[in-house]
Structures are given as C-alpha cells and as structure tokens.
Amino acid sequence: MKITYILFLLPLLLSSCIEIIDDLSIHSDGTGTFKYSINLSSSKLKVNSILSLDSLDGKKVPDLAEIEAKITEFKNLLSQEPGISMVKTDLNTSDFILKISIDFNSISQLQSGIKSVLIRLGKEKDQYAIEEDWISWDGKTLNREIPSAVTSKVKSFEYSEMDLLKSGTYTSITRFDKPILKTSNSNCKLNPSRTASMLQVNTYDLKLNNSLIENAITLTP
Amino acid sequence: MKHTLFSVVILLSAGMFGQKSELMIPQEAVTVFSINNLDLLKKIGVDQLISYDFMNEIHQELFDGSTDNKSLKDAGIDFDQRLNIFYGKTQNMEVSGFTFGITDQAALFSVFDDFDPLPSEINGAKAYGSFFNNLVIKNNNGLLIRVEPIESYVMSMTDSIWFSRGNLSPYYQGFDQNEAFSDDELMAQDISYELLEKNYNELRDSIQYVLQHQYLSEVFRGLFQEGKSLYSLSQPFREVLVHPVAGVFYMDNERNFDRAKNLWYLKSVLPSLYLDIQELYQGNIITGDLVLGAQSIDFNITASYSEPLGSIYLEMNDAKFDKRIAKYIKEDQSAFFTYTINLEHAYNKAYEIVLPLLEKEKNIDLSMNVLTLKLANAFINKDAVFDAYKGCMFGTFNGVKKVKTRKIEFFYNEDTFEYGERETDAEEEMPIFTLGFTTGRPDVPELILEHLSTITSNFEKTPNYWVYNKAIFDAAPLYMINTDGLFILTNDEDLAKNHAEGYGKAGLSNKTLKTIKKAGSMSGFANLKAVANQFPTDFLLPEQVPLMESLRGKSGTMSLRSGKTTLQNTEISLSYGFESSEDSGKHLLDMLNTLYLLTK
Which domain holds residue B351? Predict the structure, then answer.
C-alpha cells in the first residue's frame, strides 16, 4: 500500500508545479470512460532526487521498476473487476507523466472496482477510508468529492511541504451526451454546448479545503 | 500495575551517590552533553528547551501547556549543578534522559506535573512515573529517564510468539492474489479466536511493556544496586567533566562500533576477526569542550583511538595542502571544506596492520580475498594509482541557481475541454556544488573522458572544460575542468564558462590560505545564514532535514579545523561565531542541538 500511496500522493507531496487531470465521460446508458493524468514534468529534478533516496519520512521510496510493476499490477487487477474494460496505463519515465484510462459499464462498477483494487493492493490499517463513496450517479445527477483517504493523507503533510503545493493545479472534467442543467459548484465552467464541465483548482487550496472540488452536476431532463 | 512493576524494577541499596547529578548517568549512555554554565540558561523557556531535538525523546508529557511562560529558573533546577543530557543505544534498548540538580521540588513538580509517586526502595530516593518516563530524585539530584526496547526486537519477538500459536499473518490482506485466503477461511480464524487471547497488536504492546520494564530494571540495577554509572566506569568521562568550560561532550565510539548492525555477519561468521577489529577500535572515544566567548562558542574536540589505528591516522596526516586549490574557492564563499591526506602512506600502513589480522582467519573465502589483495599489492603500480588521486580535495557550496529544464504542459480547447500536450521551458532550483582534487596524472581523467565521449554524444569537449549534458537527474549538466594538476567536477556553469582558470583575486586570501595550511588534514567554513537559508531541503535525506531546519534563521559563521594528530588522538576544533546582541544560552543550545543531530 505504501507504494500505492506514493504513486497517488507523492505527486501532491512533492511537486512545486503539478498538473492533475481527471476526465470522466458518462454516456446516457451509464457507460463511460475515466481518464486520470498526473504530470510532474516541471519537477523532474525533485522527483529524480526523491527517487534516488532510500526512504522519505520513514517510508521506503520505490525505484522506477517497482513503480512500473505496481502500475501494471493495478492495471491487471482492475481489468479483472466486473464492469471494467480497456484499462490502459502509460508511464512516461523521462517526463514523469502517468496516464490511466478505464472504460466502465456503470459509475458504481467503476467506483467499486477501484476500491476493490486499492484494498487488495493495500496493507495499511486505514482502509475503511478507501471504502467510502466518492462518486454517485442516478442517471440525472452526478455527485463528486475527494475520498477522505486522500484528504487525510494530504492534511498530514508537514508544513515545509505545503509550499510545494502552491503552484499546482487539479482539473476535473466531466462530459455527458446531454446538456447540463446546473452545477452546485460556482467555480465550475461549462463549454458552449453545455455538455462538458471543467473545475480547476489550486492543489494547495484543495489541501486546505477539499470541498473545492465537490460538485453536483444535474442534466437537463 | 505500573506501580507494582516499578517496585520490582527499582532495586534496593546504593550508597554510591555523592552530591552530583552526573553520578546518576547510566552506564548504557553512549553520548553525553553536560552543560556547566547553567546561568546562561536561566532565561530559556521550558517550552523553548523542549522544542530542541535532543529533548525529543522526553518532551511529550512536558509539552502539554502546563509549562507555558515558565523558564528553567521557575522549574526548581539547581543552577550550581550541571545539566547532563544523555543518549545510549544497546543491541536491545534505547536509553535517553537527563540528570540535574534540584533546589525546589515543589517548583519542579509544577513543571513535571504528570508524574505520580511510585513505591521506591532506593535508599533515600523517591521515584515517580508517567506514561513515558521515570523520574528518580535522590539527594537533591534528579534523573529523568526513558528506556525503550528496540522496535525491531519487539517485532521479532511478537512474530515468534504469534506464529508459534498457529496464527495466520496479521497482514493477510497483503498476500499476493494467488495466496489470498477466502472469506470463509478468514471468518473461521476470527471465530476460532478466544476472546481473552490477545490479538497481534495487543501482544506486541504487552511484549513492549514487559521488555521496557525489564530493561528499566537492568538500568536501575546497574545504577543503584551495583553502583555502575558512566561516571564510575569511564575514566575519560570523569576527566572531561573537570574541564573548566561551559559544557562538555562525550561519545563512546567503541560502543557505537559494537552495536553496528551491519557487523552481524562478521560477528557470527568470523568472530575472532571481529574481536581483532574491535580491538582496533578500543579506546575510540570522542570528547569535547564547549568554550564560551563573548561572540563565539568554540568546540574543541579530541578524538582518541587505539595506537594501531593511530599509526594509520598519523601516516594519513603526513600530507601538505596544495595551494593551487585556493583559486577555486572564493574568499566570500558561503561554505567550503578542504581535506588533505596522504593516501599512499595511509594505504601502506593499513596494509601493514590490517592484513595480518585477515591472514589469521582460517576461512577459505577470506583467505582467497587476502591472496587477491596480496597479488594486487604486488602487481599494481601503486605510485601511479596514488599519483592520479593525490589526496588533497576540496568542496564548495555555491548557492542555489535556477536550472533550465523542459516540461510538458496540458492545454485545453475551451469549446470541448479536450486537452493536448506541448513542450515548454521550465526552471527548477538546484544547489550548486564544486568538488575537486589534485592529480599528478591529468592524462588519466582525460583518457576516461575521451573514451566516454565516443560512447555518448552527451560528453562534449570545449577548450577549457568537458561537459556531460543532462548528467544530473537527467536534466542539468555537469562540468569537468582538468587543468593545472586539478580535476574539478561542478554543476556551476559560471565557474566552468567564466572561471575555468580560477577566481583570481576573488579567490582565497593569503591569510585564509595560511589558516587552512595550519589546520592539518581538515578545514571547513560555513556562513550559516547563507547556507541554511539557501539550501533546498528537497535535496536532503529526511534525517538531515531537521539539522538544516535547526540552522535556519541563525546568523554567524562556523569554521572547522583539525589540529595535531598523534598516535593516541587527533584534535579538531569547531568554532561558531555569532553577533554579540544575540543570547549566548540560546546559541549554546543551538550548537548542542546541531551536535546531537550529527552524532545521534
């Protein structure tokens, strides 16, 4: 689990300029594609210096081969989950960009598939946090938030690490076949055809207030 | 329960105590800081004191708000006595704490307000306990101590008992997929547990608790029953305590060697060789005096060692500083060091002393290694090897610079929110260092670099230097200057491009050069403010970060020089200069803290 956490949280922890994009497309029949990208290319020096360490804050720092193996394991396990298909991962080890793409039959299967894999990969005690729901879809309204497993970890970062989050961005994009009627988050932008929403926040602000990314998107009937 | 165990732990008798708190330092202590001039600390707040790293092990219960706005003066501490901070580690336990004199016990307990009286059977002593620590007061001397079993030992004992009871791994969820237990199997295990039987974590806590009290008992038995304290057992410690200085430092490196974990193979497979090497380390003790000046604290260190080891050091120090180095260090450099040793003499002496120890071993693998060493010694042209690296080196910290890198950034289509990638320029901060050494064979590095340049185009030769592009973390270049008997590696573009022949008049002055020449094998200088505030902590190991953090905001300079080396010891002095308006007591504690972090 430590490697899994490092994979998903190290970016938030270390980067002076990080870009994270989650891009969710949901079709009218409930199927869709979830894409997740982490871009650390502007912090190559820092990431390389961290990877050269044996440990960080008492936790072992994996080498690139271990990270690649863990990503492959994540991909293989997720591919076996019900309702999940076409799991693709791509790790660019020279620019440190990780991309994941997952096709799903329903949002609930996407969520339970990811939870199941994280729990199977994990050894840590706070797995109850992973079991919480962070997304729901009833065919009309999509509710999204950040899992508490992530927010509690980010909140535990040392003060000295906080400065590093200040210039990063987290972008959450959601696409539908039908136009969007309304969104609960006032910072959310809609495209001209109202079929896609974009919410962009600073990673440091997000650390201070994880509700910034919370959003309820309701479609036109 | 705690009281009962403690009464078992505290053993009768004693009579060993005089009137000084240093007599209560346990024999397990390996490192001791003893502050003599406590007047300096009267103004230090208790909360400020316990924020230092050297108080980390014992500060939890003090740091509960009850000490707000209280100074050490309010704590009933006797400022006519020393404050002795100690730390020790054996194969099984860690011991930390401090001893001090007491003038007012009521005032003391207004600070140490989480301690409950414990039944004690030490003659004339009162014992107190809290969740973490124990306090013993005897003859107006206090010993605050924490004894902790080593975690790995606790875990191995817990695992042993846990699995011997037929239990599955407590971390079963971490097993590989094909080894995973079914829900039925896990359920069956849960049902089979006796309610009164401890789970893994409870078992571990119990073992830790019992070991903690067992080890505390051992420490107290030695201290109070057998009369064995560090003071009674160590003559060097007794000697250093009588020095008329503000504070003293003691570190028993011989015992540090003994507990080194990476020597377990040597201990178990080649025990006689281990004993021989241990003998080499006999008497390896470092002591130091902290001398307070009006605007400085001088730390005069004496590193003592055995005569065989001393003979190697003596040969090693038979070297002259190469003044050609001076032009590559700026007079106002924020930090630099020089290191001058005679590697060839040291090698010959080490060969003479260590080889007979290895030869005595009747082990086939070791014997073959000894033969290889002998053949290498016979056939290799040692003069050529030691001429390539002549033993004089230097390093400088040149500040932090922005390094140009390339990054990938995402861009968005505002109509669709689709995104693409594009490559753009980026900048990242990087510490700038220079490292160089003298060589009598400039053709050797040139030969290596020529060869490497045929393998990769990343190596490029310019008239004044070589450059290895993207050498550092696949981003920043490394420059190599091979000139005038010096081979220099640096990521300082300015040095390589504009000062490949040295900094000229901006280089070290004759006065500084003279000081370095006098310094012996080691010399160093750091402008603390410049270094600590400039150095990016991302590039430090996690254990080094607190040290750098502790130096932040300080003004002053630190200089290091080694002095005379004899068969028995080497003298080293570390001088910390600061502005006179600043509080000396605080500086003393800052200095102690730095030493603690360096030596822990």
Answer: 273-333+344-368+507-599
